Backbone:
């Protein structure tokens, strides 16, 4: 039961973050919500019928690429 609560709380935190901020990155998930595996949380949300889009971004200073997830506007 504890594991289920943890997963649910992580999903709720990610959905709330995307709703309020518009999107979430792995770094934001880690720093703001202590979620180490954002990809797994996003996957579970997609199974739960959330429409989530992933957009590739390039960091302007380091030029490294990263994923930015947001709720689809048609939800």
Residues:
């Amino acid at each position: 039961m504890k594991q289920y609560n943890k997963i649910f709380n992580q999903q709720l935190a990610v959905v709330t973050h995307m709703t309020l901020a518009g999107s979430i990155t792995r770094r934001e998930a880690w720093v703001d919500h202590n979620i180490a595996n954002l990809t797994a949380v996003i996957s579970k949300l997609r199974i739960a019928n959330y429409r989530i889009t992933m957009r590739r971004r390039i960091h302007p200073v380091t030029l490294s690429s990263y994923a930015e997830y947001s709720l689809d506007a048609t939800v």
User: Anything to note?
Assistant: The mean pLDDT is 90. The two ends are 29 Å apart (CA to CA). The first strand starts at residue 24 and ends at 25. The chain has one domain: 2-71.
